[in-house]
Amino acid sequence: MNIQTEKLIDQIQAGIQEKKGHEIVIADFSEIEDTICQAFIICSGNSPSHIQALTDSVEEFVRKNTGARPTAIDGLRNAQWVAMDYGDVIVHIFLPEVREFYDLEHLWADAIITEIPNLD
User: Fold this and answer.
1) 10-57 pLDDT, tens per residue?
2) Burial class for 23, CB neighbours closer than 10 Å (0-12, 13-18, 19+)
3) Beta pairing, strands 22-28 & 81-85
4) Residues 88 and 66 sit within 8 Å (Cβ to Cβ)
5) Which domains does the chain have, with CATH numbers?
6) pTM for the complete prediction?
């Protein structure tokens, strides 16, 4: 993974942690051929309003500290699963039950999975 992608991931993580997102997982696909991106960052929020706050925080942290903007944000209408596309990195912010249902972090058995401890 290149330094620019690593900095993007760091800022996404900081934006999530700023608003107390939890169960952060980074799925690194950089060693896998033919993937849609270099990494997924997956986290959980407690409610639709918390998911919206997490989305806003990630967008703000990334823009301020890297200048990058997502090419797309989808799912804000229901705010049960929001996906933010930063090209090399896709952020997934879930309600816990929706995250459990889709189980994205286990779809790619050959990805390198890093679990980030909750801050609280």
Assistant:
1) 999 999 999 999 999 999 999 898 888 999 999 999 999 999 999 999
2) middle
3) unpaired
4) no
5) 3-115 (3.30.460.10)
6) 0.95
